[in-house]
Design goal:
Oligomer: single chain
Number of helices: 9
Mean pLDDT: 76
Number of strands: 0
Membrane topology: Multi-pass membrane protein
Distance between the termini: 8 Å
Keywords: Membrane, Transmembrane, Transmembrane helix
Structural class: mainly alpha
GO cellular component, one term: plasma membrane
Organism: Cellulomonas persica
InterPro entries: ABC/ECF_trnsptr_transmembrane
């Protein structure tokens, strides 16, 4: 039996150290990471939050999200945002990395807050924007202080009850792992397509950016699927059937 040949898609640069095509600033300035978003950007440290178990941090994040939804008012939103900022300070994270990753979310929170202020008053507008920023910042702190392996182990343990409905916890953890890995790959593909379109003078054409990025992501998805199939992952095959297949080989 010959193993499936997998042609891997060029992967995104490692988080925090990789350099994308536009990493160097104009004028020969310092390099910056190709992807500095809030997902999966682990920052090593020795803070209490770094030493806390991943399951406890995920539970605290879930409770915080529930509290933000149930407790209403601008004062509670301000307290939630203050707690998120305090958690970031206690973790000893770098604000410049967090700021780059949260810029897009801050713009969305600002737009939603302005709309809610116009429609329902300043109190609701402030509450909405502060709640969004607080939740995103708390999630950023959790991912920045937790290694990906520890995070996925906690998810796998939490998903054990799903065995009773026929869903393996390992499958859930694998799906989340692939999702987190696909985010920087998607950003890297979009950056490559945007730079290629700019080089051809087509930076204002959405098609020149979206189509190549979509092709790159489809290629990445196919390579990932072939790699999983070559390792026998994702197949709904019982142990008895797998053993029988080995005997036939």
């Amino acid at each position: 039996m010959t193993a499936a040949r997998v042609t891997p898609e060029p992967a995104a640069e490692p988080h925090g150290t990789g350099v994308g095509p536009r990493a160097r600033r104009r004028g020969g300035g310092p390099l910056r990471p190709a992807w500095s978003g809030p997902l999966g950007l682990y920052q090593p440290g020795t803070s209490p939050l770094h030493r806390a178990p991943a399951a406890g941090k995920l539970l605290a994040l879930a409770v915080s999200g529930l509290a933000v939804v149930l407790v209403r008012g601008p004062l509670s939103a301000a307290v939630a945002l203050g707690v998120a900022v305090l958690a970031h300070v206690v973790a000893g994270l770098h604000w410049h990395r967090t700021r780059r990753g949260l810029t897009g979310f801050a713009v969305v929170a600002l737009v939603v807050g302005v709309y809610q202020t116009w429609a329902r008053g300043w109190a609701v507008g402030f509450e909405t924007a502060a709640d969004l920023l607080a939740l995103v910042l708390l999630a950023t702190v959790v991912t920045a202080t937790t290694r990906a392996d520890d995070l996925l182990d906690a998810v796998r343990r939490a998903a054990r009850p799903l065995r009773h409905v026929g869903l393996a916890p390992e499958t859930v953890a694998l799906a989340i792992s692939l999702m987190l890995r696909s985010v920087p790959v998607l950003v890297h593909a979009a950056a490559q397509s945007r730079d290629a379109a700019r080089a051809r003078g087509l930076e204002r054409s959405p098609r020149a950016v979206v189509v190549p990025a979509a092709v790159r992501m489809v290629g990445h998805a196919r390579a990932t699927g072939e790699a999983l199939a070559a390792r026998g992952l994702g197949e709904d095959v019982s142990p008895a059937e797998r053993a029988r297949g080995r005997g036939e080989d």
